[in-house]
Amino acid sequence: MFVTKSRLRHSLILFVSFSLLMHSSLDAEEQNSESLTDASSAIEMKQSIKYAHLLSRVKWKPVAQGMPRRRGAFEPGVEVTGVPYSSVKSVGRYIGFDIYLKTFLAAVENPQSVVYTENLRGEVPNAECYYGTVCSGYTSYALQCGIWYLSRVHTPDYREGIHLVEPQSAQSAQPGDLIFTPPRPGSHIELVTGVTRDKEGKVTHVRVEESRPPTTMNTNRTEAEFNTHLASKNRKLYRITDLDAWRGANRADAFMFPNYEEDSATPVINRVLLLDRGDWVAYRKDQPVKINIMDRDRQEVQQLVVKRGESIVETIEQPGIGMIERNFPAAGNYSAYCILGDGSQSQACEFAVCDLGFQLPEEDIKLGKPWEIELSSDNMQPILLYFRSAKNSYAQNMIFLTEADRRNGKVSIPADLLQDKGKTEVWLIGENQYGRLKERKEFQLR
Q1: Domains and CATH numbers, the chain
Q2: Which residues, at least 6 apart from 223, have a Cβ–Cβ distance to it below 8 Å?
């Protein structure tokens, strides 16, 4: 077919115009997609900062001597902001993950509670108070994880959905960014919770919050101060752009804890009686439950009543003021309250009695070979197996348990889960509506 030069030129113009239009349309879709991703990420980070403030902005006052802190103790009657720093490991309880925030606040109001009578200093490395958190627990709680990620594995080498911010300066910082300090010997993680800009949009201040001794630190640095802070100790600024990818299966909404609704509500702390572990808390079957009758408002306590569910377990006439200790062999959810002089009933303390355990294989556990762990529990749902290697502190392996695992009473450990021979520890973590318990054992991976 004969085609004139004019018609050919016209066809080429149409083709180029169509190509540019399509390219422009694709670019617009990509930009729109990126904008939606950025907007979604900003909303998630705003929520995370709100959750971070639950732990960092809470105010409380010790009522007795003896609550341990780094190089000393908290002073009675002196207001404190933020929850205590304490790496409680498997011995104590992490605030937000193992107990409600209100459980800690109730323990603070009981002069005979574990926060005054127990001290993890010398027993657990980097720990003092029986209830507390650490930098990684604080950021993981804020970022809506079901269990904490170690600070050293917050970064792109170990997590997806996170990248290094460029350039590394205050002008690039956004709320929700993480600041990572590499091990010296211990690593550290901080959270950017606010960025202040002037009328021209230039960053003037960056607010950073972190968990460090004795409690959460809140620092609003100028641009120059932030840049100096970031440049020292080889710190790096990171940004999470996909929170779901960063968390993986480790999602708070898959578990009972953290419970942000309960932690954000203002609790009514019992003034008549409190438990040695506060209130709204789980006990093991082998743990005595210590009830401190305080009667702070002098309402003349006549009876102490303890119930399991709706059934009365015990009634103690004229219990007086002070501690009453009981062991409860039957697992279940309990309450304890007092009958007062005018015949009214006091606010009840609520607690659970539970059992949680597991059994390792009798034969040697060998590298590269699958094996099994047997589970046992009562009034406590096993949710997680957590492994740590003495040889490799960066190895933080977790198995999230399924309904089939719980039904079968055992968990299969894949051959490739653990990579380092030598001493290894495994924790079984369980939860019910009143909190979590942890059972820890050590074994040799041969």
Answers
A1: 59-262 (no CATH), 270-354 (2.60.40.10), 360-445 (2.60.40.10)
A2: 170, 171, 202, 203, 204, 205, 206
